[in-house]
Amino acid sequence: MARVVGIVFPLSLAVCLTISAAALLGLPAEQRTLNTGAQITLQVLLFGYVGCGGLGVAIGHALRERQVAEAIGWPAGNPFHYELSAATLGFAVLGLLTRWYGPEFWTAAAIGISVFQLGAGGVHLTDRIASRKMGPLGGIAIVAFDFFAPVLLLGTLVVYYTTLS
Fold first, then answer.
1. In angstroms, how far is CA 122 from the centroid of its own chain?
2. The model's pTM
3. How far apart are CA 20 and CA 160, in angstroms?
């Protein structure tokens, strides 16, 4: 179960980047600009990674709370997991809604999930250093991922805005 839980966000991120690259390569050469690439990547990351991937994580924390807790190395039976599920679900809904709204909405969704994930990364890192008792997902990989995804998302957002015509 830990492998399934641990693969939701990384897999959704990899799929999103692959779709973004394919979409950009499918455009005529004159339309393949840095801004277009950033826009496509941002839209796919927000809908796929934040929206669809977030749904998977929210469902995991809500319906598989005990397995997720064990995989992270945290105690099961704590209502924290249900709070985390609700928060993740909220960001997932925002990610899904980016499909129908414009850049200002993308910005809000990207900043919101990034602050959340950076905070989660800080918690995981602190816990990792303090306890050294971690489950298969509580190690350095989840910490790195909690920091990598927001940097990628916010970096793409910066590229999008700085390359607007």
1. 15
2. 0.84
3. 14
Q: Which residues lie below 8 Å from residue 49, measured CB to CB, with a gap of 6+?
A: 9, 12, 13, 16, 95, 149, 153
Q: Round to whole Å and give the CA distance between 96 and 74.
A: 29
Half-sphere exposure of 70 (CA within 13 A, CB side): 8
In order along the chain (165 residues), what is the average pLDDT of each group of 10 residues? 57 77 84 91 92 88 82 78 91 96 96 94 80 62 78 95 92
The CB-side HSE value for 125 (13 A sphere, CA atoms) comes to: 11
CA 23 – CA 21 distance, rounded (Å): 5
Contact 146, 121 (CB under 8 A): yes
d(CA 73, CA 6): 13
> By three-state DSSP, how is residue 78 classified?
coil
